[in-house]
């Protein structure tokens, strides 16, 4: 399980507040529209983009269908190369394993490469409780950590902050964590980056343990692959004595050759770069070069249950490029915090309810955080049909029924708040299945059209129609018009 999002407000409650924050909306609008435009240019340069997209989806699907085989192959290869593999069934398990490994080194500080998996398990909070300080080294993660905030975007965790806000955070908070920011710090990107670089450099040189995630794990050789743009990852992955890597089991790919596809699609989809700036790969340990102790912690935390869902399992193809966030009209207005989980945006709306179940009000609200416009599906480099999974999850929530989360079976009650929708759909289904009833309903509707209200009754329906006009009902049904069209034509003056 994950403790990171229990007790938080539902998506509509949180979005109601965040959409009132004009500064947040301005920051998000500017950032997402910039990335969106650049990504569209970067992907349009490749004439075989559709083929790469299909290949990425096929590689991921093949691996997921044979995940047991590739995970065992990966474990053997990592172990042969001098690493140690640990299996974590859930977030608590992963945090306990990592805490024990750090304690065994005698250290009380770690440097971290940006990792969604560690956010998912709430690792930083678990380490703090165990007396271990974790230093985030990705620039945006550093900003979020210094401000005691939460990330709001997969790729750009501080997307909700502008440069002036970041300068103020560096001024007021950096000193409490190490080397302070200079007094004359400006809000130019170069100055801010230099302040962060100097602040982090002493941590890279001092800290003996590093924690990372990985974008991919190559089963055939047991190789970990990390893509990043700042060079902080390279520091963390090479300087410390001990490296602990926490990765979701779905990040496995069979061969180096498969990596070729993702090294083309991931940078263009995420940062709109033709080639990733820092791609670090390592296989176990090498005597006298890099960390001499390597631990790989493989995280399930709901992934096996997700794999069992034939519609929902496509979410496990995700390579965390964040393209779907940047095109989502709901994300752009509500921001990442409204999702209440480490995975915001469209992918979060389908991944979180599958990994952690839909038994909490927050998780049950996430599949509804979408207009189903389909823009997320269009841009996804591994062709995840997010709208299809959203509708599938909505059906699951509305209908209720058995579900399994981290091996624990529960039964979800049908959602009470969708009673009106269910009743409407049942009535519509019955009417459409009975032609006489359908014809009578149509005639009654056209004959009473002058009496129809312009706004629907009921709180939700009224709010919906407050900003939308109900379409006018025509004087005749299509069938009436069709039956009488010849007579109408004769009556029409020539
Ligand atoms: S769902 Fe697709 S577009 Fe969204 S982050 Fe994952 S890979 Fe990228």
The portion of residues forming beta strands comes to 5-15%
Strand segment count: 12
Instruction: Briefly note the structural class of the backbone.
Output: alpha/beta
Count of spatially separate domains: 2
Rg over C-alpha atoms, rounded to the nearest angstrom: 26 Å
Q: Using the 3D structure, state the CATH architecture of the largest domain.
A: 3-Layer(aba) Sandwich
At CATH level 3, the topology of the largest domain is Rossmann fold
What's the average pLDDT? 91
| Residue runs with pLDDT of under 50 for 5 or more positions | 1-5
Number of helices: 24
Bound molecules: iron/sulfur cluster
> What gap, in angstroms, lies between the N and C termini?
75 Å
Portion in helices:
40-55%
Strand line-up in the sheet with most strands: 1-10-7-4-2-3
Any descriptors?
single chain; 494 residues; alpha/beta; Rossmann fold; six-stranded parallel beta sheet; 12% strand; binds iron/sulfur cluster
Summarize the structure.
With about 500 residues, this protein is an alpha/beta fold. The protein has helices spanning about 10-20, 20-45, 50-65, 65-80, 90-105, 115-120, 125-130, 140-145, 165-175, 190-205, 230-240, 255-270, 305, 325, 330-335, 345-355, 360-365, 375-380, 385-400, 420-430, 435-445, 460-465, 480-485, 485-490; strands spanning about 85-90, 110, 135, 210, 215-220, 225-230, 240-250, 250-255, 280-285, 295-300, 400-405, 410. It has two domains: about 10-305, Rossmann fold; about 435-490, no CATH class.
């Amino acid at each position: 399980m994950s403790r990171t999002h229990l007790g938080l407000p539902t998506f509509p409650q949180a979005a109601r507040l965040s959409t009132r924050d004009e500064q947040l909306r301005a920051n998000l609008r500017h950032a997402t529209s910039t990335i969106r435009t650049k990504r569209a240019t970067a992907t349009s340069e490749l004439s075989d983009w559709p083929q790469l997209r299909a290949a990425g989806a096929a590689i991921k699907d093949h691996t997921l269908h044979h995940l047991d085989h590739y995970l065992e192959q990966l474990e053997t290869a990592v172990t042969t190369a001098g690493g140690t593999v640990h299996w974590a069934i859930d977030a608590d398990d992963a945090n306990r394993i990592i805490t024990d490994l750090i304690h065994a080194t005698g250290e009380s500080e770690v440097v971290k490469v940006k990792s969604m998996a560690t956010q998912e398990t709430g690792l930083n909070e678990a380490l703090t409780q165990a007396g271990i300080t974790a230093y985030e080294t990705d620039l945006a993660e550093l900003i979020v950590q210094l401000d005691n905030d939460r990330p709001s975007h997969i790729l750009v965790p501080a997307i909700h902050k502008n440069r002036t806000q970041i300068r103020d955070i560096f001024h007021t908070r950096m000193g409490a964590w190490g080397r302070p920011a200079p007094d004359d710090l400006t809000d130019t990107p170069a100055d801010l980056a230099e302040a962060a670089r100097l602040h982090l450099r002493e941590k890279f040189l001092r800290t003996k343990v590093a924690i990372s995630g990985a974008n991919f794990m190559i089963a055939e050789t047991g190789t970990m692959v990390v893509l990043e743009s700042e060079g902080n990852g390279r520091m963390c992955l090479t300087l410390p004595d001990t490296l602990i890597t926490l990765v979701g089991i779905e990040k496995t790919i069979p061969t180096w050759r498969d990596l070729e596809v993702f090294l083309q699609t991931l940078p263009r989809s995420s940062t709109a770069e033709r080639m990733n700036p820092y791609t670090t790969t390592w296989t176990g340990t090498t005597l006298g070069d890099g960390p001499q102790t390597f631990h790989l912690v493989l995280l399930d935390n709901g992934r096996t249950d997700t794999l069992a869902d034939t519609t929902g399992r496509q979410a496990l193809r995700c390579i965390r490029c964040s393209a779907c966030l940047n095109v989502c009209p709901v994300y752009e207005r509500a921001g990442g915090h409204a999702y209440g989980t480490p995975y915001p945006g469209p992918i979060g709306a389908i991944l979180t309810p599958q990994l952690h179940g839909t038994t909490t009000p927050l998780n049950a609200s996430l599949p509804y955080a979408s207009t189903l416009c389909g823009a997320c599906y269009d841009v996804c480099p591994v062709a995840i049909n997010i709208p299809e999974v959203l509708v599938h999850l909505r059906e699951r929530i509305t209908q209720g029924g058995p579900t399994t989360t981290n091996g624990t079976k529960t039964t979800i009650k049908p959602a009470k708040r969708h009673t009106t929708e269910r009743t409407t759909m049942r009535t519509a289904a019955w009417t459409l299945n009975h032609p006489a009833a359908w014809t009578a309903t149509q005639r009654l509707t056209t004959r009473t059209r002058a009496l129809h209200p312009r706004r629907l009754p009921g709180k939700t329906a009224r709010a919906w129609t407050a900003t939308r006009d109900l379409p006018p009902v025509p004087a005749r049904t299509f069938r009436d018009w069709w039956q009488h069209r010849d007579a109408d034509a004769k009556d029409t003056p020539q």
